[in-house]
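Collaborator request log, item 7. Partner lab (contact: R.S.) asked for a structural prediction of Amidohydrolase family protein to inform their binding assays.
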Amino acid sequence: MVSEQTVHGTILYGPELEPIQGYIAIKDGIITEVAEERTRSENIIAPCFVNAHTHIGDSVVKDPPLGKCADYYVERDLSSLVQPPHGLKHRVLESTGHDELVEGMRRSITDMLRTGTCAFADFREGGLDGVLALQEALQDSEVTSRILARPRDIHTENQELRQEVERILLDADGLGMSGASDMDMRILRTVEQLTKSNQKTFAIHAGENGRDDIDKALSLDPDLLIHLTQADHTDLKEVADMDIPVVVCPRSNFITGVGMAPVREMLKAGIDVAVGTDNVMLNSVNMFSEMELLSKVFGLEDRQVFIMCTLMGAAVLGLGNIGPIMEGNRAKVMILNGNSSNLSGIKNPVSSIVRRGRPDDILSVIL
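Returned to partner:
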């Protein structure tokens, strides 16, 4: 059956998110027409968010107490919280049953959709079992995913490791590794070569808590870098010269105490920068919160922030079916209520969505 609909309002059109009044016509999920005309609709039609870096497996341990409590103590530092193999996240994942893990991830995926996210990339722990659990959680969901897995045994370079990686890559979109200082470089080179030979994505955390692993990560010629919180000018020049995109996670970096990524310098260097919410254990999957932080604390230009959180996320993840609102592209849009108590009276829809937009401003998401 052919599906058709027309949506009126202020459209954030094209790659520059130019606000125009009019309507978009959608047929079988494709934008067939964008027309500019006067409209009485207060709706704002915008591209959906792309959450370019998540760990949704730890949805089962949200907001652990950071400091002393009655039963235990959780250090407020990166290694105690998330570093493999003994960080809090990994201890919890090891003790979490399959059904509980799947249900936790399913709820986070549902929350993404409700908060305007149409696609995400997950660094999936747990080897093949972790990949299959996420695929189960994604069943019946319209949210697009990129699963970047990692093998269980990352401490021994042998035939078993190679076989595990090859098997994982049959189901995953690539590998998403922890920092290069967390394991032997011989192992990382092995998994990188296997990933590339299977024509899959090789991504890695780098420069999150220090600069010591950045050169190591770059020597692996990754397709995608995560964080680069501690990168300096020399690092950024090399990343730009190698044409490697970067995903930054502002709220996550604040709560783990590693500081602020040099996003402005990244952009000035010509690096493609996207945004992710990182660990669900520490942050919700709400991309509105990331935008507000990037605008108000990092002082970035609002249009650039919106692009980083939407169109650039799709670009760096290779999601060719997600793009700007234009004729011929797939309709991956959110409809916001421009007459909500929060947005009523705004003059610049891009700036206002970035600075004050909230999930409850969303009327619907079209995927």
